[in-house]
Amino acid sequence: MFAVHRSRGTYCLAAVLASTALTLTAGGTAAVAAPHVTASAADTSVVKVREGNYFIVLSRWHFRPGSVTFRIKNVGGHPHGLSIRGPGVSRTSMIVPPGGRTTLTVALKHGRYLLWCPVDQHRQRGMWTWIAAG
User: Fold this and answer.
1) Are 103 and 92 in contact (CB under 8 A)?
2) Residue 18 pLDDT exceeds 90
3) pTM of the model
């Protein structure tokens, strides 16, 4: 019995292993090439982030491990930015003025990540949230 995994590379590897096991069980020989996996822009998840006066709203909070681009829009009346900290990640975006936009791309591993606005006392005023990868 084989489990189907969401990752393209893992799914291909599981299919190759399943094919090899069936061939060897039946008494045949197997000529199997290793799967070729490449990273591309299509492998990057995109999440929309709206930041305003002491709130952060994300289009989603759960991700697969891998590259994630946060598209940040400041809809508030004060400058805002986005910081993220978690397993293997500690990054901060540019600070943007009201109405401004920026992006922040990070590579998430399995685990929880804290996101917050690094401007002044915004985090202490409730401008933070958690996301999860895995």
Assistant:
1) no
2) no
3) 0.68
